[in-house]
Amino acid sequence: MQVQAPSAVVMIRPHHFRSNPETQGDNAFQTPDRGEVAPRARAEFDHVVDSLRAAGVTVHDFDDTGTDTPDSVFPNNWFSTHAGGHIAVYPMYAANRRRERRWDVIDSLKANYRVQDVIDYSGLEHDGLALEGTGAMVLDHIARVAYVAKSHRADPVILERFCTHFNFEPIAFDAADAQGRPVYHTNVLMAIGTHMALVGLEMITDPARRAMVADRLAETGRDVIALTPHQIGAFAGNAIELCGRDGTLLALSARALDALTPEQITRIEAHARLLPLSIPTLETAGGSVRCMIAGLHLSRRT
User: Fold this and answer.
1) Coil, strand or helix at 273
2) Which of helix, strand or coil describes residue 274?
3) Where are the alpha helices (DSSP H) in 220-281?
4) Helix %, strand %, coil % for the chain, to 5?
5) DSSP state letter for 85
6) The model's pTM
7) How do residues 100-158 score in pLDDT, each as one tens digit?
8) How many CB atoms lie within 10 A of CB 202?
């Protein structure tokens, strides 16, 4: 495991996957279901798990146990892990997404990894507040920066608490698509690796804030690769750097890879091997490969 690129992940196998009616209002990346999608979603999920394991990534996969949990395949929204043995559990915006939290998953992590504490923010849902994990925040674990696109899924009060607890500097900004709709999750807009960052800079609406984000990433030594709104729409920003058997890899969807230019691909491949994964059904829910993966920044028990 590297500081930014985990070598182990948690994934949740979906059994009731569909386009979530409770999140359609603010997730412009969602598309309507076409027919019975759950079996196709499970097959795509298993393909991703097999591909990651073949690359040498440790995958802890759990079967979804809920009945009204259409987005359970996206666990990075309800928990995150951090070096030193820390876990955060988050409040979710949509009521049916709150049912995704799995304390058996947390208990399994405690049994297999060194966990010092679990900080649970989920009770703040009762106050109508949400901070949807590493969907709402894109974390630079090296420079200790939390990048956040402002939305009702990223409450500033909880963000401040998280950053205080976990020692991150918050950098928040407004981001919108070509139609002026706010970007619902920061992790569709940007992905941060050890030596590179993919960012939809054009979608950060304030020019000064846009320049600040680009400069802050460049200051950390990253190769900042700007993505167009079209590429963001194809989930090119929803990627995650992982540590595999043969080094660093960037997991992203096949659709995302198809949207990249040859020059962008060359720049990425200078830092990580590309691992494209075909998940067209799962992407109808408005998330892609990064959303499916909760990285483990914890130390194994010996």
Assistant:
1) strand
2) strand
3) 229-233, 254-259, 262-269
4) 35, 25, 40
5) T
6) 0.93
7) 999 999 999 999 999 999 999 999 999 999 999 999 999 999 999 999 999 988 999 99
8) 16
